[in-house]
Design goal:
about 45% helix
């Protein structure tokens, strides 16, 4: 699906390049800003603001690898390029859903969430959320420990301090027996402050993370109508400028740094509700445009699939289906949001299980309808003939599994079958699935030595970041 024509993409990109060359961007970090100026940026009369000439931006974008490798703890590797594939991640939030209420996420809640996410076949990476029972400055590396204890997939901690990047890298060496650059089992990311500003924390995170080949997601997250133009074209042009300026920073700090070009966190601002929307059709449009701009730069992309609904209901299904399908058909590489509710404020185990069903449908939609001699099946139709049947034909046995999606939760059958099974709806089916996953006994994913070392490192870095 191409939302924008080539001419429209290039016009947006030209506007973004003009923003950086004429308006500039604020870099609130003296050392990083000095390095960017030494690379070719131009200081302005306004303190901290630099202009980035077109040639500098294009040179730095060209330095970034067009393919980013992400490894799972189990050793599997996926290579993300501008034309695919698509993978799905969890989400980050402060709360966990408890029926129709919510409460602050604690470490035992996060452990259960990660276990559920780890069991879902269409999820590539669980994301560690903030946990209320640990000090805020420790929650990034505490989150990584919980990820490592409960998942063998790619691990995505969220950053709360620049030192967290060093702590997580040390912990990853305990979990990962392979060379990290070949098997990057975790990745990081940080977001610009719209409009056109990179804060001190973000730039220090980039600095502390550089030199190790850690895949980094460079995020632009403007709100159209609040901290970006209300017009979607203006908002995505600003987002493109912010992400490109982030690439100038990362590629200056580490030439060839594998980075994800993420414009898919852009959202519209609802003037009536006075809030940022995460599940509206405009979110889908912004994410689709963001994917196309990443493809223009020959870089992998990301987006976020969420909903304003506070519970896994019909609204959540509607919003996630509409936006998620747009993201997938536009070719977004990483779609965040498994389990996300409540405008990205709440995680739900049941929603995560339902999102897994949705992801299966999106991945099937991406496959489209290949037209070949084999799929046209003329010879098969000729053999079966007028009035014949295809159920027992060998061609059906060879292709039915690949042609159709067979969901785990959705009801398929007549009404009598549905009634005999308890007339359950999809939320009840998801609750049963969550119970089934969490009821299963499984061996610890870490050895005793690994567990002790992670606990030791957590204690060491807690003392350091807390200044004990």
């Amino acid at each position: 699906m191409e939302l924008l024509s080539r001419d429209e993409l290039e016009r947006i990109n030209e506007t973004s390049l003009r923003m950086l060359a004429e308006i500039g961007v604020l870099l609130q970090h003296d050392e990083v800003r000095a390095q960017v100026v030494a690379a070719g940026a131009q200081e302005t009369p306004r303190a901290g603001v630099v202009r980035m000439p077109r040639e500098l931006v294009q040179d730095k974008l060209a330095q970034a690898p067009s393919v980013v490798r992400l490894a799972s703890v189990s050793g599997e590797v996926v290579e993300l390029g501008a034309r695919g594939p698509t993978v799905f991640w969890g989400g980050n939030a402060l709360h966990i859903a408890d029926g129709k209420t919510r409460r602050l996420m604690r470490s035992d809640d996060l452990a259960k969430l990660i276990r559920v996410l780890d069991a879902l076949p269409h999820l590539h990476a669980p994301v560690a959320t903030s946990v209320d029972d640990f000090p805020p400055r420790t929650r990034d590396f505490v989150g990584f420990r919980l990820l490592a204890e409960n998942s063998r997939k790619h691990l995505r901690p969220c950053m709360y301090t620049p030192l967290g990047a060093q702590a997580i890298y040390e912990m990853a060496e305990v979990v990962n027996p392979r060379p990290y650059r070949e098997y990057p089992i975790f990745s990081l990311g940080y977001t610009a402050i719209s409009p056109l500003r990179w804060g001190e924390t973000a730039l220090e995170v980039f600095k502390q993370s550089s030199g190790k080949g850690i895949p980094m997601m460079v995020n632009a997250e403007p709100m159209a109508g609040a901290c970006a133009p209300v017009t979607l074209a203006g908002a995505i042009a600003q987002a493109n400028a912010e992400a490109m300026s982030g690439f100038v920073v990362t590629q200056t700090l580490e030439p060839g740094w594998p980075c994800i070009f993420n414009l898919g966190f852009a959202h519209p601002f609802d003037m009536r509700a006075a809030m940022s929307l995460t599940g509206s059709i405009e979110c889908g449009l912004l994410a689709a445009a963001g994917a196309q701009l990443a493809q223009l730069h020959n870089l992998p992309s990301a987006s976020w699939m969420s909903t304003e609904s506070a519970t896994p209901d019909a609204q959540a299904a509607l919003e996630k289906t509409v936006t998620g399908l747009m993201h997938g058909l536009a070719g977004v590489n990483i779609i965040w949001g498994f389990g996300q509710l409540d405008s990205q404020q709440t995680m739900s185990l049941e929603m995560a299980v339902i999102d897994n069903e949705l992801a299966g449908q999106i991945l099937r939609a991406q496959q489209g309808m290949p037209v070949t001699d084999e799929t046209l099946a003329y010879e098969v139709i000729k053999e079966v003939g007028v009035g014949g049947g295809f159920v027992e034909h060998e061609h059906t046995f060879e292709h039915y599994r690949g042609e159709l999606v067979y969901p785990d939760l959705l009801h398929r059958g007549d009404r009598e079958v549905w009634e005999r099974r308890g007339a359950r709806d999809i939320l009840e089916a998801a609750q049963e699935k969550v119970f089934e996953i969490l009821s299963q006994e499984r061996e610890p994913l870490l050895t005793d030595d690994q567990q002790r070392e992670l606990n030791r490192l957590q204690e060491k870095w807690t003392e350091r970041v807390m200044g004990v």
